[in-house]
Design goal:
alpha/beta, binds uridine-5'-diphosphate
């Protein structure tokens, strides 16, 4: 079936806290199921879906600095956390939602997940499998947002969907400032120069260089499908 949609291949960035439910910590079964159901409905739109999953619900490298832990080790622990999340997501997508998936990790763990190989990832996507990228970029001192930009560029994704707990990008934290103003559209450079903490500068620069738009929106019932059809409100960075 031909799709009239503007996107053929989408890179969905999910932060780890999305799997942690209200508290954003650990993995919450209901939150996991809700997210998997949204992903299934996006995939049903006849579009290729790749996902980069974060690990902040389990571990963030930067937080270990206060214990004097070596940052490199702490960051690798964060990358391992993303593999745990990826496996949880894969499991629920396959067992409850009947979609074929592959987890590909930047850090090789052949007993658990496939190693990341770009050409294989594209083959999986072309076969209709959802590909979950784990292990971030495979390097310390980076974030999974940068991994999202990197993978989006490598697989030639048409767009990055950054699904968050907030409905777009604001000039200040809307949970703390009732007068915070939401942007409908921003350029990559404006996002960096205004210091808007939606993605780090490395991730934004990579998207800018490859002209990949980023749609930031709130993950809720039906939002992924709406984002696909162009009716979801949020902020577009391009
Ligand atoms: N991380 C890393 N390199 C990467 C991606 C992630 O070192 O390429 C580590 C880093 O310690 C980070 C943790 O993994 O704090 C979890 O990733 P991130 O904070 O991006 O997850 P999210 O906020 O999206 O849940």
């Amino acid at each position: 079936m031909e799709t009239k949609a503007p996107y053929k291949r989408i890179l969905l960035k999910l932060s780890g806290e999305m799997l942690g439910g209200e508290g954003g910590i650990g993995i919450d079964g209901d939150a996991l199921e809700q997210i998997a159901s949204e992903i299934k409905s996006l995939h049903s739109c006849n579009v290729q879906v790749a996902i980069v999953i974060g690990g902040g619900n389990i571990w963030r490298g930067a937080s270990a600095v206060k214990w004097d832990m070596d940052r490199t080790a702490a960051d690798y622990m964060g990358m391992l956390a993303t593999v745990i999340n990826a496996m949880a997501l894969q499991n629920i997508l396959e067992s409850k939602f009947d979609v074929y998936t592959r987890v590909m990790s930047a850090i090789h763990m052949q007993e658990l997940v496939e190693p990341y190989i770009k050409r294989k990832a594209v083959k999986h996507l072309e076969k209709g499998r959802i590909v979950i990228f784990a292990g971030g970029t495979g390097n310390p001192f980076f974030t999974t947002d940068t991994a999202a930009s990197l993978r989006a560029r490598e697989i030639s994704a048409d767009v990055i969907f950054k699904a968050t707990k907030v409905d777009g990008i604001y000039d200040s934290d809307p949970t703390k400032n009732s007068k915070a103003k939401k942007f409908d559209e921003l350029s990559y450079l404006e996002t960096v120069s205004k210091g808007l903490k939606i993605m780090d500068a490395t991730a934004l620069t990579l998207c800018m260089e490859s002209d990949i738009p980023i749609l930031v929106f709130k993950m809720e019932n039906g939002s992924l499908k709406k984002a696909f059809s162009g009716t979801q409100t949020g902020t577009i960075v391009r």
